């Protein structure tokens, strides 16, 4: 089973994560209810097992909690994939969420990059400052070593737009991580 366990403790956060790319239980506690909801949507739609416990300095704000969660989850994702032998490498997925539509395209390449036209204006969605969504995505992409393109094509309700982002990310990564052979999918022979 492709599983990784990562722990990270700083003066601002204390995070432990167990990620299984091949399924399992989902138990998420970050102290930010809406963020828990988004990470649960990501894991469920990706078919991932995810146990995540985060203690952050929420008395300051949610920034360190959200960004550091992206760092740890990205590191776990990279570790669980190992040398990436046999995976499809690429994945893409559209998710409609009522009036909103998001597209996620991913390359599990070892070359981190994020393209995200941040449509969120910093309004609160539940307890999550929506401007932190890009911080999570950047930290995740760079620590996972993936090229990540996400486009919220349209939408009006911030909850729906955010949920479409996280669900499309889960589905696209599920496709990219699918075992399709035994070799590394690269003309270089290595990712």
Automatic annotation (TrEMBL):
GO terms for cellular component: cytoplasm. Pathway: Amino-acid biosynthesis; L-histidine biosynthesis; L-histidine from 5-phospho-alpha-D-ribose 1-diphosphate: step 6/9. It holds the Pfam family IGPD. Its EC number is 4.2.1.19. Its main location: cytoplasm. Signal peptide: none annotated. One of its GO terms (biological process) is L-histidine biosynthetic process. Keywords: Amino-acid biosynthesis, Cytoplasm, Histidine biosynthesis, Lyase. It is found in: Cytoplasm. It catalyses: D-erythro-1-(imidazol-4-yl)glycerol 3-phosphate = 3-(imidazol-4-yl)-2-oxopropyl phosphate + H2O. Gene3D superfamilies: Imidazole glycerol phosphate dehydratase, domain 1. Belongs to the imidazoleglycerol-phosphate dehydratase family. This is Imidazoleglycerol-phosphate dehydratase. It comes from [Clostridium] cellulosi. The lineage of its organism: Bacteria, Bacillati, Bacillota, Clostridia, Eubacteriales. The gene is hisB.
């Amino acid at each position: 089973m492709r599983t990784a366990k990562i722990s990270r403790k700083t003066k601002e956060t204390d995070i432990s994560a167990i990620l299984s790319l091949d399924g399992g239980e989902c138990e998420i506690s970050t102290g930010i209810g809406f963020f828990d909801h988004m990470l649960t949507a990501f894991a469920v739609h990706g078919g991932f097992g995810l146990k995540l416990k985060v203690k952050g300095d929420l008395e300051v704000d949610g920034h360190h909690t959200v960004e550091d969660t992206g760092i740890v989850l990205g590191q776990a994702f990279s570790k669980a994939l190992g040398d990436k032998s046999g995976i499809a490498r690429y994945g893409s997925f559209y998710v409609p969420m009522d009036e909103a539509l998001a597209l996620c395209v991913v390359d599990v390449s070892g070359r981190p990059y994020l393209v995200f036209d941040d449509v969120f204006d910093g309004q609160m969605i539940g307890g999550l400052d929506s401007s932190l969504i890009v911080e999570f995505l950047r930290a995740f992409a760079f620590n996972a070593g993936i090229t990540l393109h996400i486009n919220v094509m349209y939408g009006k309700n911030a909850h729906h737009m955010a949920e479409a982002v996280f669900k499309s990310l889960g589905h696209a990564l599920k496709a990219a991580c699918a075992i399709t052979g035994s070799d590394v999918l690269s003309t270089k022979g290595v990712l």
